[in-house]
Amino acid sequence: MRILLVEDDAPLAESIAQALREEQFAVDIAADGETGAHLGSTETYAAAVLDLGLPKQDGLSVLRSWREQNRPLPVLILTARYGWTEKVEGFKAGADDYLTKPFRVEELVMRLRALVRRAAGHHGPKIACGRLTYDAQLGGFEFDGMPLKLTSFEWRVLSCLILRKEVVVERMDILEQAYEGDAGGDSNSLEVIVGRLRRKIGHEMIETVRGRGYRLTAGGEPS
Amino acid sequence: MITSLTSIRARLLISGVLFTILAVVLAALTIQPTLDQFVRRSVDASLESQISVLARAVKPDGTLDQDRIQSVGPFVRRGAGWAWVVKGPAGTLRSQTVAMMDPRQSGGPSPWPKAEGPRPDRDRDRPQGGPGPQGERPQGERPQGERSARDAHLEKPPTGPLKESRRWRSRSGWNESFYFRTLTVNSSRGPVVITAGAPRYIRDRMRDEGLRPLLLSLSVLGVGLLAAMIGQLELGLRPLRKLGASLAAVRAGEQRRIEDRQPKELEPVVAELNALLDHNEAALAKARSHVSNLAHGLKTPLATLAVRLAEPGRDPDGSLASLIAQIDGAIGHHLGRARAASPGAPGRPALHVRPRLEDLVAALSRIHAAAGVRAELDIPDDLFVACDPQDFDEMTGNLLDNAWKFAERTVRVSASRDGGRAVLVIDDDGPGLTDEAAAAALVPGSRLDERGAGHGFGLPIALELAELHDGALTLGRAPIGGLRATLALPARAGETAES
Fold first, then answer.
1. Chain B residue with minimal CA distance to A124?
2. Which residues pair with B154 in a beta bridge?
3. pLDDT at position A49, please?
4. Range from A158-162, B198-202, B347-351, B475-479 carrying the lowest mean pLDDT
5. Which among A16, B246, B395, B437 is least buried, having the fewest CB atoms inside 10 angstroms?
6. Are A53 and B310 an interchain contact pair (Cβ–Cβ within 8 Å)?
7. Per the CB < 8 Å rule, is A97 touching B366?
8. pLDDT given for residue A48 in this prediction
9. Residues 6+ apart with CB under 8 A from B404
10. B368 to chain A: which residues are within 8 Å by CB?
11. What local confidence, expressed as pLDDT, does residue B349 receive?
12. What is the pLDDT of residues A189-205, one digit of tens each?
């Protein structure tokens, strides 16, 4: 799960990014509105965290530009602005959630996970696929009721697959969700990660669809 | 008097009344002597024409031509009080009206000044009695005088050139009750004194007859002037009253500025007032923006601090995080109070309640998406309130947020109009508050940490804002189980609506 963080205050941006990485997220930081608008328009993110008071282009107009381009990414507005009028404006501009500074990191993480889950069309906080269960609120995986230990990359790939379970997920999509910015991995490294995941949850759960990508399945036909 | 003079209207009215009365009285005072003069001239003219008629009857020898003696003008009317006497060397001739002027009848002093001596001594001894209806000439009464005049005329034909033998001497005068004119004509046999007179009451009556309609029209003029003045005051002071109403409307928030279109004299005042309003508004906006900038400036580093503290091991017992929460609470509290303590910008627009609340409910549904609370709205579309939009959002946002936090499944928002007020009711089906807790939740300025967890400072701020907008906020028990917050705000007609 890769998150776009648009925040001009460098210490805060770094702190948030670090806190999110602790929670397995991949994070790209944009320090001004223009960069943020560009990244949000061109890259694929699971969600964006958007400050409103930004240099070059303010947050609301960044959000509006994404919505005008029909970018579906869920957006959480993170602002020092306190008033309800600003909140309403944010939501009318197309925001999906709103947090005021200062905030608790757990709250931000929880809200981001919920945003990503809802954007993928899941209503309940738990997503199950065969013996595998993902707790979208806490971000943990269980396999046969036991917590599953995963590295960050493994978690990103597996969460990406389980949010779109039973559906073929393009390689590129998975890579974009797993690697930050220009770090960009390749198909080989993805294959390595998928191999490790298969050893943990069983070979049959992750199908390789040649030329396209992977499918997490409980054992049915691809849709 | 002093208090009444603080009113421009009273000042103008009182001074106007005084000046009008003064002008009317002055006019009356000026008119009287003019009229007197006029009356006197008219009396003079009558007397002189009678005298000249009589003078023409005087023959050069001092006798009178009986045929030419006649009464003219007012002298014709018997009983009018006009009379004449001709006294000459041939004797004394008088109009039959003379008797009427006798002091013994009129009760006044003799009309004929003794010094003038137009009447022979024997006239004073003439018998009493009015100018009886017995004939044109009072021969019965004064046969001697009449006769002598006639005799003189008959017996002594004029001799010598008339012009040379006659010299005119005219004079006029008053005694107590009589006005007369005298002409002395010199004849060959001595002076002939012609006197014609009118009693004083004639003059008074003529003057009064002239004065009465004049005074009447003066009073009508005075009353008319006063009425016109009152009308003028009404008309002239109307812009001032309108200006007052306009200012009141600004204060009530119905309009933002005073209308620029004013009478020329008021334009500078209105321009100054509007400049003052603009200045206040700008100063208020500046002050608010300073407070808000300070708050937001603090919040970003505070957020960084909070995120850093969340790193493992930094704040094991959570005490530092609670300090941050406390700082944040204080900032929010004072930010809200800064807003509530300063009256909003003047000119509160009529705020369309329904779209505003729908937006807020939509926002809250997303913020509290995880809670799965359902919102039920029952708000009439034609409800408007007089309220600053941001303040409205703060009040209803805080109340709705509160409802959402405590609701189990449902938040119910309804609104209705109750006379001049719009009443918004926000119910939740949560645990609600006891009466004591509800009262405590609304106490403004109480310490943050004394307040019940979760209710935060949203409710007191909402209360302060409601009171700022001449509204009210009460807490009670909702029929669906939880807390009911009732917010009443001044309603506004929706014609000038902007949502």
1. B370
2. none
3. 93
4. B347-351
5. B437
6. no
7. yes
8. 92
9. B364, B367, B368, B371, B373, B411, B428
10. none
11. 67
12. 777 888 888 887 777 77
How far apart are alpha carbons A99 and A76 in whole angstroms?
7
| Prior bond of A102 cis (ω within 30°) | yes
pLDDT value of position B127 = 38
Cβ distance of B367 and A102 shorter than 8 Å = no
Q: In this complex, do A88 and B393 lie within 8 Å of one another by their Cβ atoms?
A: yes
Task: Of B26, B297, B279, B446, give the one whose Cα is nearest residue A102.
Answer: B297
* Contact across the interface for A97 and B390, Cβ inside 8 Å: no
Chain B residues within 8 A of A116 when measuring between CB atoms: none
Cβ proximity of B52 and B78 under 8 Å: no
Q: What CA–CA distance (Å, rounded) separates A147 from B158?
A: 168
Instruction: Describe the crossing of helices B458-468 and B389-406 by its angle, rounded to 10 degrees.
Output: 150
Is the pTM value of this prediction over 0.90?
Answer: no
User: Rounded to whole angstroms, how far apart are CA atoms B310 and B306?
Assistant: 6
Where b means 16+ CB within 10 Å and e means fewer, B410-419 reads: bbbbebeeee
- Residue A75 pLDDT greater than 90, yes or no: yes
When pLDDT is averaged across residues A43-64 and rounded to a whole number, the result is 88
Q: Is the pLDDT at B331 greater than 90, yes or no? A: no
ipTM over 0.85: no
Which chain A residues are closer than 8 Å to B296 by Cβ?
53, 80-81
> Who's near B162: CB < 8 A, 6+ residues apart?
B60
> Which has the closest alpha carbon to B485: B415, B386, B381, B384?
B415
* A24 dihedral zone (left: phi>0; alpha: psi -120 to 50; beta): left
* A18–B300 C-beta distance less than 8 A: no
Distance, CA of B65 to CA of B154 (rounded, Å): 8
Beta-carbon contacts of B132 under 8 Å, excluding residues fewer than 6 positions away, are B138, B140, B141
Give me the residue from A16, A83, A91 closest to B307, CB to CB: A16
Of A104, A74, A98, give the one whose Cα is nearest residue A86.
A98
Is A95's CB within 8 Å of B366's CB? yes
- Residue B498 corresponds to which tokens in the numbers above? 């902007």
Residue B447: count of CB within 10 angstroms of its CB: 7
Confidence of residue B31 (pLDDT cuts 50, 70, 90): confident
What pLDDT does residue B96 have? 67
The CA distance from B304 to B297, in Å, is: 12
**Two tokens, residue B234:** 């009404």
CB contact under 8 A, B390 and A106: no
The alpha carbon of residue B306 is apart from the nearest alpha carbon of chain A, in Å, by: 7
Mode of pairing for the β-strands spanning A132-135 and A126-129:
antiparallel
pLDDT of residue B102: 44
Binning pLDDT at 50, 70 and 90, where does residue B274 land?
confident
- Select, from the ranges A51-60, B70-79, B143-152, B309-318, the one with the highest average predicted confidence (pLDDT): A51-60
Chain A residues touching B306 at Cβ < 8 A:
102-105
Least confident of B114-128, B280-294, B413-427: B114-128
Question: Among all residues of chain A, which has the CA nearest to that of B318?
Answer: A104
Q: Which residues of A touch B390 (CB under 8 A)?
A: 83-85
Q: Is B307 touching A (CB cutoff 8 A)?
A: yes
Contact (CB, 8 A) for B335 and A65: no
CA distance A56 to chain B (A): 18
| Percent of chain B clearing pLDDT 90 (strictly above) | 1
Of the ranges A69-73, A132-136, B199-203, B327-331, which one carries the lowest mean pLDDT score?
B199-203
Tell me which residue of B157, B151, B193 sits closest to B54, measured CA to CA: B193
Specify the amino acid at residue B388.
Answer: D
